[in-house]
């Protein structure tokens, strides 16, 4: 990767005796949203806390936009925004007071302009004089996101930002995340796989302190190669006739016209089914490979079995 916004090299950390993460290596390309997945205790928070400079790693290096976080923490942190799982908001301050305080902590020069920009970006300008305690959960989360971008960082980490919100608030916060990712890179930690599918460009998955997957959402989606086909015929054949097609080794009759076929070998089996159907007049209406769910991929990468 030419100029990654984040580069992590041989990152390891142990709190006591056991390693919480061990020899983690990855690069994040600038722009868009990257989903961070992993089971409870996998090492996500440890990794995020180190990347944000909140926790000092036992070994390894982190570079933010090419700046070594351990050697130049102040410079590197100018380009990091962080929304932890529990937003660090002060309920007794108004939205504007709180954001001014955060901008000051971040050494922002023109505080009023930076605060106005962050409030406008997060759609909270109309609540600027309201005490944070009197905002709904969704708006409090917007304030949390505003504090993460008030110093205009190139890289923002959001730790389960939609946790505890109602479905409408989830949609609103998701749209906001998409908007703020238009001109910066976002690392989004979440347990909700549909959220990753709906918002992320790439996925990174950590299990037992190691990176077990890193790639596009499509690659994650296709991680388990399909081995079943769904077919629907207008004039269905007998099950035994389907078994004569090369590669098909099991047939399940779903109802009068629909079947699930288990196959081995390549995807050419679909062509053979189409040919056979034309030759024998079965009048094929629908055929598609059945994909595994994201849950099944997640379970496989976590070395757990689930029944679909
Ligand atoms: N402060 C700590 N002291 C000792 N062990 C810790 C500490 N924080 C985390 N751990 C351990 O380190 C490992 C990784 O934990 P971490 O919190 O990074 O996982 P996680 O993926 O963020 O989990 P979750 O999704 O539950 O937040 C776990 O085994 C955890 O018990």
UniProtKB/TrEMBL annotation:
<comment type="similarity">
    <text>Belongs to the ABC transporter superfamily.</text>
</comment>
<keyword id="KW-0067">ATP-binding</keyword>
<dbReference type="InterPro" id="IPR003439">
    <property type="entry name" value="ABC_transporter-like_ATP-bd"/>
</dbReference>
<dbReference type="InterPro" id="IPR027417">
    <property type="entry name" value="P-loop_NTPase"/>
</dbReference>
<dbReference type="InterPro" id="IPR003593">
    <property type="entry name" value="AAA+_ATPase"/>
</dbReference>
<dbReference type="GO" id="GO:0005524">
    <property type="term" value="F:ATP binding"/>
</dbReference>
<dbReference type="Pfam" id="PF00005">
    <property type="entry name" value="ABC_tran"/>
</dbReference>
<feature type="domain" description="ABC transporter">
    <location>
        <begin position="6"/>
        <end position="233"/>
    </location>
</feature>
<dbReference type="GO" id="GO:0016887">
    <property type="term" value="F:ATP hydrolysis activity"/>
</dbReference>
<keyword id="KW-0547">Nucleotide-binding</keyword>
<keyword id="KW-0813">Transport</keyword>
<protein>
    <submittedName>
        <fullName>ATP-binding cassette domain-containing protein</fullName>
    </submittedName>
</protein>
């Amino acid at each position: 990767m030419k100029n990654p916004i984040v580069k992590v090299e041989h990152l390891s950390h142990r709190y006591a005796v056991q390693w919480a993460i061990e020899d983690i290596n990855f690069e994040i390309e600038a722009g868009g949203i990257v989903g961070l997945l992993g089971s409870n205790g996998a090492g996500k928070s440890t990794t995020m806390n180190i990347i944000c400079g909140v926790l000092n790693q036992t070994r390894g290096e982190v570079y933010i936009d090419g700046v070594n976080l351990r050697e130049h923490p102040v410079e590197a942190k100018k380009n990091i925004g962080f929304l932890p799982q529990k937003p660090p908001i002060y309920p007794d301050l108004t939205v504007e007071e709180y954001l001014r305080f955060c901008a000051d902590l971040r050494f922002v020069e023109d505080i009023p302009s930076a605060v106005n920009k962050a409030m406008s970006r997060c759609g909270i300008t109309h609540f600027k004089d309201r005490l944070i305690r009197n905002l709904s959960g969704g708006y409090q989360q917007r304030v949390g996101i505003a504090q993460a971008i008030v110093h205009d960082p190139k890289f923002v980490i959001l730790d389960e930002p939609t946790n505890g919100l109602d479905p409408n608030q989830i949609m609103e916060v998701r749209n906001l995340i998409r908007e703020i990712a238009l001109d910066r890179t976002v690392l989004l930690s979440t347990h909700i796989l549909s959220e990753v599918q709906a918002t992320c460009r790439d996925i990174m998955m950590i299990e037992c302190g190691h990176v077990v997957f890193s790639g596009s959402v499509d690659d994650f989606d296709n991680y388990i190669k399909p081995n079943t086909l769904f077919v629907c015929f207008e004039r269905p054949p007998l099950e035994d006739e389907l078994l004569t097609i090369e590669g098909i080794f099991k047939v399940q009759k779903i109802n009068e016209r629909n079947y699930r076929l288990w196959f081995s070998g390549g995807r050419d089996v679909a062509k053979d089914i189409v040919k056979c159907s034309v030759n024998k007049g079965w009048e094929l209406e629908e055929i598609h490979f059945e994909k595994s769910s994201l849950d099944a991929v997640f379970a496989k990468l976590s070395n757990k079995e689930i029944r679909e």
